[in-house]
């Protein structure tokens, strides 16, 4: 019997029941379920893993709950600068974009780059100009990405020489928004990157990751989300991986590729490789966050060394979406 499997994440960090309102938990659960459903509909009809991960990530980019697309944080310049990457495990080809400011779904622009064998990674104004040739890529103005919660997070630190995780040290905000109520708790933080990994019924793997980066980031800082082998990787011979965490540590440890390499060259299982990298290697260098991964047999691993990770999975063997938030 042909099988499929899909896993997603919406960020990791200090995510505790005590910091979550019922309304916010319900909102996250609904958003994650919608993302899984979008990808599952493609996979169960025989569609490709590549299209499934793009579809799942687009749903999360369209939600203000996650630090990607609509919910992207503000840079020190007061702009929303997004990063995304996607990789096909069958051909080991990839597409990535960074410092994107006017594309509604950066993951779809990354997919266009993947399809163009001239490039792998496009940045800034060049990426924006490249996107102009594709009518199907929806262009938006800066106000589309504006959310009051993200703006207030930036206002609290814009004059300081530091960058924040998307839920770190948020100021008090008097609003009925469940997102703002969550942020106003203070003391919690979250790496709001989103991602998806999938296995399709043809046995192909794919991975995709998208983020808005850090609040108040400067100097064109980039994280791991758009870097192939760091935040995203897929190879039919081993696994597909999408990461969420403090990008510098994931870059230095080439986390996504390392998990694949441990399977390919070290003979480890997906679980062994994921646990070794996330729970040992990253911990030793104070790297916090998590990964979602899937191997060519459809085994799924959702591993994180933080207090929680927004995550979900679904498969041909378990067709009802499974959502989890806390450890």
From TrEMBL:
Domain of life of the native organism: Bacteria
One Pfam family in the UniProt entry: Asparaginase_2
Protein name per its UniProtKB record: Isoaspartyl peptidase/L-asparaginase
Organism placement in taxonomy: Bacteria, Pseudomonadati, Bacteroidota, Cytophagia, Cytophagales
């Amino acid at each position: 019997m042909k099988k499929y499997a899909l896993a997603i994440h919406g960020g990791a960090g200090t995510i505790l029941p005590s910091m979550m309102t019922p309304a916010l938990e319900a909102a996250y659960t609904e958003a994650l379920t919608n993302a899984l459903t979008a990808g599952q509909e493609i996979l169960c009809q025989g569609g490709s893993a590549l299209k499934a991960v793009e579809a799942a990530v687009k749903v999360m980019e369209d939600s203000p709950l996650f630090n990607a697309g609509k919910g992207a944080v503000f840079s020190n310049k007061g702009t929303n600068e997004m990063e995304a990457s996607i990789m096909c495990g069958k051909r080991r080809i990839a597409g990535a974009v960074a410092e994107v400011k006017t594309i509604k779904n950066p993951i779809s622009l990354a997919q266009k780059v993947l399809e163009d064998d001239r490039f792998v990674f496009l940045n800034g104004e060049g990426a924006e100009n490249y996107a102009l040739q594709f009518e199907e890529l929806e262009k938006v103005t800066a106000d589309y990405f504006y959310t009051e919660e993200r703006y207030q997070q930036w206002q609290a630190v814009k004059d300081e020489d530091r960058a924040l995780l998307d839920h770190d040290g948020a100021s008090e905000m008097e609003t009925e928004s469940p997102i703002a109520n969550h942020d106003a708790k203070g003391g919690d933080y979250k790496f709001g990157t989103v991602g998806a990994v999938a296995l399709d019924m043809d046995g192909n793997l794919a991975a995709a990751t998208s983020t808005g980066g850090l609040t108040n980031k400067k100097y064109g800082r980039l994280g791991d989300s758009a870097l192939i082998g760091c935040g995203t990787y897929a190879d039919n011979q081993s696994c597909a991986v999408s990461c969420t965490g403090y990008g510098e540590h994931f870059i230095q440890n080439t986390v996504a590729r390392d998990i694949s390499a441990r399977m390919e060259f070290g003979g480890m299982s997906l679980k062994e490789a994921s646990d070794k990298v996330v729970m040992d290697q990253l911990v030793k260098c104070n790297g916090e966050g998590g990964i979602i991964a899937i191997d060519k047999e459809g085994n799924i691993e959702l591993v994180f060394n933080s207090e929680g990770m927004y995550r979900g999975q679904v498969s041909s063997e378990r067709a009802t979406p499974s959502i989890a938030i806390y450890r």
